[in-house]
Amino acid sequence: MADLFGTPQPAAPLAEAMRPQSLAEVVGQPHLLGPGKPLRLAFESGKPHSMILWGPPGVGKTTLARLMANAFNAEFIALSAAFSGVKDIREAVQRAEAALAQSGRHTILFVDEVHRFNKGQQDAFLPFVERGLFTFIGATTENPSFEVNSALLSRAAVYVLKSLNEDELGQLLERALGGPLAGLQFDTSARERLIGLADGDARRLLNLLEIIQTAAGETGQSIDGAFLDNALSRNLRRFDKGGDAFYDQISALHKSVRGSNPDAALYWMVRMLDGGADALYVGRRLVRMAMEDVGLADPRALRLTLDACETYERLGSPEGELALAEAVIYLACAAKSNAVYVAYNEARAFIGQDKSRLVPEHLRNAPTKLMKELGYGREYRYAHDEPDAYAADEHYFPDGMPEMNWYRPTPRGLESRIAEKLAYLRELDRKAKKP
């Protein structure tokens, strides 16, 4: 390729060259893009709306934002939160105002890695989203419930994108081999291995294909497993040493901890670290296990696991990995309970389908005279003034709502003691009930 002056220009990366130009070319996300599905309907609606695209890398977040701009003949402005600040936001607003004034074109503002913007930077978008100056599309790999501020989140629909499955990656591979990489040939084992290495990430698949193309040169040889090992030796070790799917190893680690097998848990953790997994990512998964599978049967597990992560942050590799090993062995040996996990999910499901209930007057705060006159807090019983510091038969749920029993402690570890205490308190409630 050359510019107008004949100067050679670098070829676009394969991932860019193969970026879909229409919705029909997008591979994956049938739960969002299939007939009658939410994002398909958004494209067909005739009017764009603000949204957050949440999903792992390489699943089409940027592509979908670009296609939406094309579908609505809108100006497209892209920012990366990793490299942008308030000045860039201000310039984007000015460009959107200019596009509207000069041509009447609406603007779609796409912010990649929006979770990297702080609260103040995210707040800077709000007045312009509310005015309708532009449609905001944010992309994130992190849970927007925690990383996107609530004001912005309330003004945007959240769409969850999924990693591409093997069939979808296979479609993408066939498309590349039938187009830009025509001439490359893969045997069955090499094809399966390459798709496994991509780990659901379309961009990674295309980047690996570029490495293979460079290694193959002009020979046009058939790519087999041995050639793949040689060309991608560093990538094989980093992403999938031994050919196992990365997330399968995480699953094996989690299930070994849950199954109280410290040796198997240690094996899978070391396999992941040896394969190049981010040690702090492993640490975060261990924190999740401490909450989900150990819980209040052994509350020390969470603190010990958090300490292990902090120790790794301070010492780095390889010394810090010993702290992670200590945590994984402790978790595997600890008493197990998922009672908190179950209780939280049941409560969340109930709230999701229940009506909005008022706080009972006796539980309301009464910092002003008017609120006291209205009876706020009047009949509240201060637990510390009651026998056993427990106000027997006091009601803490909203009026008209039955008492719920979501948390059911197990007979294991500390939870056996918690169960005894809760049973004792329920007995006090029973005795104190008014006839």
Brief synopsis:
The protein is an alpha/beta fold and 435 residues long. Helix content is 52%, strand content 7%.
Topology overview:
Layout: H1 14-17, H2 30-33, H3 38-44, E1 51-54, H4 61-71, E2 75-80, H5 86-103, E3 107-112, H6 119-123, H7 126-131, E4 134-140, H8 144-147, H9 150-153, E5 157-160, H10 166-177, E6 185-186, H11 188-198, H12 202-216, E7 222-223, H13 225-231, H14 233-240, H15 246-258, H16 262-274, H17 279-294, H18 300-315, H19 319-333, H20 339-353, H21 369-373, H22 414-432
Parallel strand pairs: 1-4, 1-5, 2-3, 3-4, 6-7
Number of discrete helical segments: 22
Please list the strands of the largest sheet in the order they lie side by side.
2-3-4-1-5
**Main sheet: strands, sense, barrel:** 5 strands, parallel
Number of strands: 7
Query: What do the pLDDT scores average to?
Result: 85
The low-confidence parts are 4-9, 235-244
What is the radius of gyration computed over CA atoms, rounded to a whole number of angstroms?
28 Å
- Spatial gap, N to C terminus: 89 Å
Strand content: 5-15%
Which overall shape is indicated by the principal axes computed on the Cα atoms? Answer: globular
Order of helices and strands: HHHEHEHEHHEHHEHEHHEHHHHHHHHHH
Helix % is 40-55%
Could you explain how this protein is built, in words?
The protein is α/β, with parallel strands linked by helices and 435 residues long. Helices cover 52% and strands 7% of the residues. A 5-stranded parallel beta sheet has the order 2-3-4-1-5, sandwiched between helices. A two-stranded parallel sheet has the order 6-7. β2, α5 (86-103) and β3 form a beta-alpha-beta unit. α10 (166-177) crosses α11 (188-198), α17 packs parallel to α19 and α18 (300-315) runs antiparallel to α19 (319-333). The protein starts with 13 loop residues before the first helix and ends with a helix.
